[in-house]
Structures are given as structure tokens and as C-alpha cells.
């Protein structure tokens, strides 16, 4: 069974260190060989597309911006991709923003790696996806830190201790090899948001 990893960096503020962590040859080779991840979809945020494309090309991708390949991959995923390539036999798909990240996660994500924004955490947990959260320590506030730490301690997610490829890979190992994670009760978006706030303040 082939797998897809979805990485969400946030819509407005880029998270270059997380992008760098997952666009690492050792990281990509390991996730492909160990768990058969053949596709990594990265939502990198507005204003980072040019830099993202440079990083994909620097890894040796010969088709980082082919229109035909982007068109097909966009249709398959249901998002408007801006960058597409193949690195270490892993398909790399990049886009800045979508209004339907939930649909992408629901249909395609076998594992989610997310920044620590509460909305992104909520999207993944509501869909009962295996989740690794990586803190953007340059932007992280105490509220996000509390939410991440409490949800980690309750078994809902795995937290990487920093945004290096080694740390993120260690967290992926933990997430993929865990028998299961503790699901949050289903409910409305408002109920989930309130639960996250209550967890942070408990």
C-alpha cells in the first residue's frame, strides 16, 4: 500500500525550517523505504512558492514545474498546485493555500505533519489522522505550546522537539509505529475549538 504524507506549514507565515526538514534526501528516502510513502504534499504558505521551487530543484528534481504534471497532480489532489517534482522516488507536491485543507486531509493523508496552529491541529484530529506537530519556535506563543503539550501528553498527537529533519523523522517513527492514538470525541468545529482551549487552560 502506497502512502501520502501531508505537511501543513500555515497559510500566512512560512515555516522554512519545517520545509527544509521534510525536503531532506535522508528523510524522503527513509519514509519511502520504511513505510512506502510515495507522495509528500506540502502547504507552504503564501509568499514562499519561489523559494520552495528552488529547494525542490536543488534536490535534483527535473520536473519541478511541468504544467502537464502539475495539472494532473492538482486534479488528483483537488488543490491548485504550484510546484511539482520527484525526489528520491517520492512525488513532491507544493501549494501555498487551499480553502479545503480538510478535504485534502480526509481523502489523501495517511500522516499529517503540522505546524502548531490550533486550526491545523483541529483539522487533523477531527479526521482521526496520525499527527506530528512541529513547533515554529520563532512564532510559538504559550497558548499554542500548552495545547500541543497537553494533547501530546493525552496521546492525541506526537510532538517533534524541533524542526530539524532528524527530530521530525523521530516523531514520524513514533507516530507510524504507535498502535494507535487517542481520538478526540467527534463533534462540531466549535466544540473541538472549545475543547482545545479547555485543554490548554486545564
**Beta-strand content:** 15-25%
Tell me the number of helical segments per DSSP (H or I, 4 or more residues long).
9
Task: Estimate the helix proportion, in percent.
Answer: 40-55%
From the spread of the alpha carbons, the general shape counts as globular
Instruction: Sketch the major β-sheet.
Output: 7 strands, mixed
Q: How many structural domains does the protein architecture include? A: 1
Please report the total strand number as a whole number: 7
Describe the structure.
The protein has 202 residues and is α/β, with parallel strands linked by helices. It has one domain (3-201): Glycogen Phosphorylase B (Rossmann fold, 3-Layer(aba) Sandwich), CATH 3.40.50.2000. It has helices spanning 16-22, 25-35, 49-58, 67-77, 101-108, 118-126, 142-153, 165-177, 189-201, and strands at 3-8, 37-43, 83-87, 90-95, 111-114, 131-134, 158-160. It is globular. The model has no long low-confidence stretch (mean pLDDT 89). It is an enzyme of class 2 (transferase).
Amino acid at each position: 500500500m502506497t502512502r501520502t504524507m501531508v505537511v501543513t506549514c500555515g497559510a500566512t507565515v512560512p515555516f522554512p525550517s519545517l520545509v527544509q526538514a521534510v525536503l531532506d534526501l535522508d528523510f524522503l528516502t527513509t519514509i519511502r523505504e520504511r513505510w512506502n510513502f510515495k507522495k509528500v504534499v506540502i502547504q507552504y504558505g503564501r509568499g514562499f512558492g519561489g523559494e520552495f521551487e528552488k529547494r525542490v530543484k536543488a534536490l535534483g528534481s527535473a520536473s519541478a514545474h511541468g504544467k502537464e504534471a502539475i495539472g494532473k497532480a492538482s486534479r488528483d489532489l483537488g488543490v491548485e498546485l504550484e510546484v511539482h517534482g520527484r525526489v528520491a522516488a517520492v512525488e513532491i507536491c507544493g501549494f501555498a493555500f487551499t480553502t479545503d485543507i480538510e478535504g485534502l486531509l480526509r481523502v489523501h493523508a495517511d500522516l499529517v505533519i503540522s505546524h502548531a496552529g490550533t486550526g491545523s491541529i483541529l483539522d487533523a484530529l477531527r479526521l482521526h489522522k496520525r499527527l506530528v506537530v512541529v513547533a515554529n519556535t520563532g512564532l510559538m506563543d504559550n497558548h499554542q505550546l500548552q495545547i500541543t503539550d497537553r494533547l501530546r501528553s493525552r496521546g492525541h498527537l506526537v510532538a517533534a522537539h524541533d524542526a530539524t529533519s532528524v527530530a521530525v523523522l523521530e516523531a514520524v517513527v513514533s507516530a507510524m509505529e504507535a498502535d494507535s492514538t487517542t481520538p478526540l470525541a467527534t463533534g462540531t468545529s466549535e466544540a473541538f475549538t472549545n475543547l482545545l482551549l479547555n485543554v490548554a487552560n486545564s
